[in-house]
Amino acid sequence: MKRIYTLEDACIGCHLCEVACITEHSLSKDPVKAFLHEQVRPISRCTVEEAEGGIISLSTTCRHCDEPDCLRACISGAIQKNDQGVVRIDTEQCVGCWSCVMACPYGAVQRNTAKKKANKCDLCPDRKGPACVDACPNRALVFKEGIQK
Amino acid sequence: MNYVIIGNSVAAVGAVRAIRDVDQDGNITVISRERHVAYGRPLISYLLGGLISEKRMAYLPEDFYDKHRINLLLNSEVVGVDSKKRQVKLAAGDTVAYDRLLIATGGDPFVPPIEGLAGKEKIFTFTTWDDAAKLKAIAHDIEHAVVIGGGLIGLKAAEGLHLLGKKVTIVELADRILSAAFDRPAGRIVAKKMKLNGIDVITEETVVKIEGDGSAISGVVLKSGDYLPCDTVIVAIGVRPAASFLKGSGIDVNRGVVVDGCMETSVKGVFAAGDVAEARDFFSDTKNPLPIWPDAYIQGDIAGTAMAGKQKEYAGGLSMNSIEFFKVSTISMGVTNPQNPAEFEILTYQDLESYSYRKIVVKDNRLVGAVLVGNVERAGIFAGLIREQIDVTPFKEHLLAPGFGIIHLPKELRSALFAPFGKAA
């Protein structure tokens, strides 16, 4: 299956992937409206990490593992892997126990503490490709077939 | 091929998926003594407390049993296994034949003999949906409950009852609650928060007698001689592997059903997984029952794979818990409270005012345990470092930082985790 990969040498630490992710998962799908008017704004499902004052940076996101540790740890069954291999969280079913946060070795599940719901990359089901990849100005994010454990 | 699985919780689900990954044609029969399809067992406290409805108890998509072509026998208790004839015997008298058998019966709550316990009506254990339902049904009749045991089950029961507005007192034998998962500071932080919210926690104490006339409870007597008035008692001392039905089967049972690295028992073709199994520990060759949800899934997966004729090796049980009480999140994993601290390098950070605490346990430059209270963001990165036995020397100084992340790992590791395969710099 296609997954999102990071070429960290090309990452300029601009955080546009996070903006695109928040926008795509907002109600209005407009960054300004989402920021100004939406009461519970989504949180980004990708995380740009920086070190050494920004000299190194990379965007980390869900690997959609073949054997997802998050799914195995999920106590409510909210996390399921679909027939295409995409690992998604059913937000209704999630009880906010953070077992997935405890289990994911990639640190790719976020806590939405305001909603008490776990949050993770869903590979943007309403789009052709993930919003973060399309938004990356230096093509540090790629969406392609690869090998995952 | 006839696969028979005794039990219908997370280990069974892991096994079913693994079997169907390999074998599309074999017959799978799942036998459960409970009347429900697989449910999120740890959610029973949420159900009791009214945080979720019964509808949300279902652990699996509705089509799971059909899609995986499972013959599901609910309300059926297995009373014996004949490993010579390769069949299991049901309480109703009939038998089910198997080629491969998985024992995934979980645990039974342990109720010790306490003076005055026999014949009392409002004594409960708290490990099943029906336990929660029973408690909920008589909730209007509860004013003050005493919970014996401050482990995960006891705390969960206490939380559920507290949400219903009941007065709750937890009585714990150890010097802190959650002594299996927590160290002293973490146990104290959570206990403090519970007390502030009206749940009483009494440590280094135990209930020696239950008092009351006839079937009613009027209170409990503690070891110190103190008397606690109450009308309901929850016994949450622990669970024991539910393996008593295996007596005479020839299957080796120690504390749990003893299994090898493929979850196979001493009898060929018979496997065990989950809380009932006694499998290898991650850090040593000793075998222990490990009642941990994610581990039960992993064991089920390994057992199912082996049952269907392929092989995966179990890396060993790694204890981990994510628990939140009164908005204080806690995650703990691995070795949290080493017996001989001199052999370990222990890093800690604490700010008790803001209920935040972090402890990292390192041995021979490998991470072996972590306790996080408050900021539990990305805790799984620690789990990954433990499982992969990564040398933490190059980034040890960052381990305690709240912003610790992938970026602090060596570049080869970051690339291995996130760069496209083969293209990693």
Structure explained in plain terms:
With 149 residues, chain A is α+β, with helices and mostly antiparallel strands. Chain A is 21% helix and 21% strand. Chain A has helices at residues 16-24, 31-37, 69-73, 99-103, 131-135, and strands spanning 2-6, 47-51, 56-60, 79-81, 87-89, 110-112, 117-119, 141-145. Chain A has a two-stranded antiparallel ribbon with strand order 1-8. Chain A has a two-stranded antiparallel sheet with strand order 2-3. Chain A is globular. Chain A starts with a strand and ends with a strand. The model of chain A has no long low-confidence stretch (mean pLDDT 94). By secondary structure, chain B is α/β, with parallel strands linked by helices. In chain B, 20% of the residues lie in helices and 27% in strands. Chain B contains 9 helices and 26 strands. Chain B has a 5-stranded parallel β-sheet. Chain B has a 5-stranded parallel β-sheet with strand order 9-16-10-11-12. Chain B has a 5-stranded antiparallel β-sheet with strand order 22-23-26-25-24. In chain B, α1 (10-22) packs parallel to α7 (293-307). Chain B is globular. Classes of the chains: A alpha+beta (149), B alpha/beta (425). At the A-B interface, β2, β3, α3 and α4 of A face α7, β22, β23, α8 and α9 of B.
Topology (elements, then pairings):
The complex is a heterodimer of chains A (149) and B (425).
Chain A: E1 2-6, H1 16-24, H2 31-37, E2 47-51, E3 56-60, H3 69-73, E4 79-81, E5 87-89, H4 99-103, E6 110-112, E7 117-119, H5 131-135, E8 141-145
Antiparallel strand pairs in A: 1-8, 2-3, 4-5, 6-7
Chain B: E1 2-6, H1 10-22, E2 27-31, H2 44-48, H3 64-67, E3 70-73, E4 78-82, E5 87-90, E6 95-97, E7 100-103, E8 107-109, E9 123-124, H4 129-137, E10 144-148, H5 152-163, E11 167-171, H6 184-196, E12 199-202, E13 207-211, E14 219-222, E15 227-229, E16 232-235, E17 239-241, E18 257-258, E19 270-272, E20 277-280, E21 287-288, H7 293-307, E22 320-325, E23 328-334, E24 345-351, E25 356-363, E26 366-373, H8 380-387, H9 411-418
Helix pairs in contact in B: 1-7
